[in-house]
Amino acid sequence: MSNFELIYFNARGRAEVSRLCFHHAGITFTDTRMTKEEWAEKKSDTSRFPYNQVPVLFIDGKPLTESHSINRYVANLTKLAGKDELEAAFVDQAYEKVRNMIETIEPFYLVPLGFATGDYDQLYKDVFVPGVQKHFPQIIGLLKPSGFFGENGPTYADFYLAGYIESFLKHGFPEVNKFPPIIKHLTDVKNVPQLQKYLSTRPDTKG
């Protein structure tokens, strides 16, 4: 088995899908979490951070960048991308649908995260509410009888969705509660047996 080091901030953000996949599969990896100050000192090292960004996954010392590429690689490695090529395509469809939802609501979501400025209440009304009203029913429609996007259990797309829903609830976005299947999906992911040890010990972060 290769040696893995995943480098990101002390946040769920763009690294949590891969963290969950590793923990679900019981694959050992180094979970390196930097402070903003540490990142400011290290980001110019292009031998480790080729595009001056994180997350970066080191595979036997070789850096892989771009969070979605990392997520797909780790999902395939940990058998969480689908049991065959056809299911993998539909799981990836679900992943992209969630990604599309995030891109839609991002002009609002970056404000409470502190990465953008704007009128919180107006953006919530004009961007977040119509965004989730459009995308949540479509996402719910992709869930299988298993309760997940996979026929037989959770996939990396489930971890992707659950991470954002958890953050939305932490920030107190009431529109989310109008979609019980979305809330149930988060509960189902958080109850996956293989994740219990990690979920009980991971840092409590805003996003």
Automatic annotation (TrEMBL):
Transmembrane segments: none annotated. InterPro entries: Glutathione-S-Trfase_C-like, Glutathione-S-Trfase_C_sf, Glutathione_S-Trfase, Glutathione_S-Trfase_N, GST_C, GST_superfamily, Thioredoxin-like_sf. The keyword Transferase applies. Gene3D superfamilies: 1.20.1050.10, Glutaredoxin. Keywords: Transferase. Residues 84-207 form the GST C-terminal domain. This is glutathione transferase. Residues 2-82 form the GST N-terminal domain. Its EC number is 2.5.1.18. GO terms for molecular function: glutathione transferase activity. It catalyses: RX + glutathione = an S-substituted glutathione + a halide anion + H(+). It comes from Bursaphelenchus okinawaensis. GO terms for biological process: glutathione metabolic process. SUPFAM superfamilies: GST C-terminal domain-like, Thioredoxin-like. The keyword Kinase does not apply. Belongs to the GST superfamily. Sigma family. PROSITE patterns: GST_CTER, GST_NTER.
